[in-house]
Structure formats: structure tokens, C-alpha cells
């Protein structure tokens, strides 16, 4: 059986095919890229949107390619970034393009919410790291603006749920993506209805929750015919990309807890646990309890990641001085600047110029100012490593014993300089890879739903070819 993982990132999307074979008594996963396409944020009027109709059409193009390749597809699953959502009306129509989490509409919403909500009590239920991009604050901003979309909306669907809805016609919400909203009870793993009622949102917006490893529905007849795939099952996986990535951490059975950094635009640093940690200590350390595969909790901290370097590279390209990663990282390796900046400071969230933001901060704080591109790159990477060390120290204080090994997965695991700086900062072994962790976790969770693998432990034992 072949499974199609549809993996949407902040800059691109792709359709990846995966098939499990058994050779010499050992299961192996074979993967191939079927289709890749661009994803971009679009500023229109006062807001920044995702171009959902274009992304849906690009996804269907990937499904058509899979059929033309003759793949016998047994399952399809979608994963995306967290927190963002779309609204549909009672006739199943999209009310408007989903707004991007980097939009400015949520500024000040967290302070407004906590002016009449106790932070400790709130965290004891939701266990979510407070970030103004969270779904809770996006919805509060819409209520405060008296958005007419909320008046006509029948269902709220998180981004992967929205794709799945228009593939199947079934409106449901996958557990791991719901856990990014700050509106889920972390213990019961159901909607926090008292919170939803208190902020004045209608209950009908919130769909039934389905767990990873279950079938969400089948391709609609029209899409089955259009793509040539037939009535294939659409499967719930860790539709928050972090959950799928963590499911692919190649941890040994004796690694408990499994510790990871899912490294990309964001760095998600944490451990896999059986139950949430909802203490005041966890809240103050800014850790979040998100859903995982196999009934697990991914207890982690959201850290701004290679967003810095992505922005710098884009700025240099716009200036006509495009850089290649390998030579740039080699130059950064030789750079001697020791400056460290706080990577999660507000001025670095979405500045007009990342170069100017970094240099301006250093000047104001009387730090050595990075002059060259290599200096800027070195400052970013060693600042990320320092933040990882700080987060790990806080994490260890909440665990029975400190973590002994760290897995770096995702695209950022290819950054050897960052990996080395991280290992130096943490003082424990760091293992890099797999790069394609999200697609791997997506595919193997589909195989779990179909009975080809037994559990998360077998998923992690499967060799990647």
C-alpha cells in the first residue's frame, strides 16, 4: 500500500509518497517526492492571508500526479503549521481566506485576555504557552473587531482540517492541531467548554475531535474522479506538523523520555510524555502541552528558529547579493564574534529588516555589532544554541532526571554548525535527522491506521530507505 503525505510548510507544500516493504524480516519505508509547490503569505488590505484556494489546487495537482504515476494509494493525510484556521458557513462554503498567524490583528490580545483571567488557573486547564499568534487570541481579535465572518460561520476548521474537509466533505478536528489553539483541555483532550462559553463563542463552531490513526472520511466523488485516485481514505495523522515529526524521531526503546528539537522556521524543543505538566513552574518557563501520536503529550517550548536566517537570506537576495547556505555557514564557522541576542524578543518577530533589527539591538545593548553576513549568521546560530540550552535547563528542572540525548529533526537538522553549537551549549550528545521527519511521521501514522504497523515503537524502528 502507498500512502500520500501532504505536508504544508510556511514557504512551500509537497506531496510525498511512502510505501512499506519487508526485507530480511525488517520493515523499510521507501519514499519519493511526487509534487512540490510554493506557499506564500499575501498582504491584502489590512491583513496577511494564506492563499487557500491556490494551495488546494496545487494539492490536487499532486494527487493527479500520483494517479498518473500508477501508485496504488491506500491513504491520504494532511499536516500543516499550527494555530491558523478557516471558517465555513452552513452550506459548506469558505467564508474567507485564512489569515496568517504573522498578521498584526492579535497585538495586545493576550494582555487584554489576562486582564480578567488568572494566568495560573488558565494554564492549569489548557497547559499552553501563551503566544499572541494562538487561535484563542485570533478569535478574540475577531470578536473585538465585530467581524461579520463570525456571525455567518457554522464551523471553525484548523488549516489541515480545512484541507481535509474540502477533500471529504466531513467536518472534524484532529486532536494534535486542536492542541495548538489554547482552547483545549489538556487533561481530558476535549474542548475547554467553560472557556469557550466565557469568551462568548458559539459551541457549534467547534467540531468533534478525532485522534491520529483514524479515518476522517473518503475523497469526495468529484475529487476522486478529477484526480483519478478513486474513493481513497483520508486519514487523521499528527496534522500539526510537529506531532508528525516527533513520531519519526529515531529513538531507541530505552530513551525515556524522548527529547527532540524539531528544527525549521520554528524550533520546537521538548520531550514526549504520557501526561501533561500543568504546574506553575511549567507556565513560567513557557512550555506548552501539545498532542502527540499514540496518546502521548509533546511537552515543548516554541522558540523562534531558522526564521532569522530565512529572513536574512531573503533580504540579501532582494539587495542583489544572494547567498548560498554552504559557503555562508563555512564563513560563519570562521567568524569570531561572540554576541548573543534574545531570539524571542518582540523586535525580531517580523521586522521590516532583520539585519537592521539585529544590529540595532546590539547597538542599544552595547554588544559587539555584527558587521558582515558571516557575523550576522554566527550571531543568529549561537543565539539559537544559547536559547536551546536555557530551555533545556528549565525542562530538566521539571523532569525526574535530566535528558541524556537530544534528537534534532526536520530541515534544520542539516545545519551542521547549529548542531555543533547546540551540542556544545547543552553538553550532551546530539543526533541529527531525519530531515524528512514530518512526512515520515505522517506516512507511518497512516500505516498505523491501516494496521501495517502496531504502535509508535514499531514506527520508530522502521528503517528509512
UniProtKB/TrEMBL annotation:
Class of this enzyme: transferase
GO molecular function, one term: transferase activity
Coiled coil: none
Its EC number(s): 2.7.1.-
Range of residues in the leader sequence: none
Domain of life: Bacteria
Domain Carbohydrate kinase FGGY C-terminal: 260-449
UniProt keyword list: ATP-binding, Disulfide bond, Kinase, Nucleotide-binding, Rhamnose metabolism, Transferase
Record-linked InterPro entries: ATPase_NBD, FGGY_C, FGGY_N, Rhamnulokinase
Domain Carbohydrate kinase FGGY N-terminal residue range list: 3-246
Family named by the database record: Belongs to the FGGY kinase family.
Name assigned to this protein: Rhamnulokinase family protein
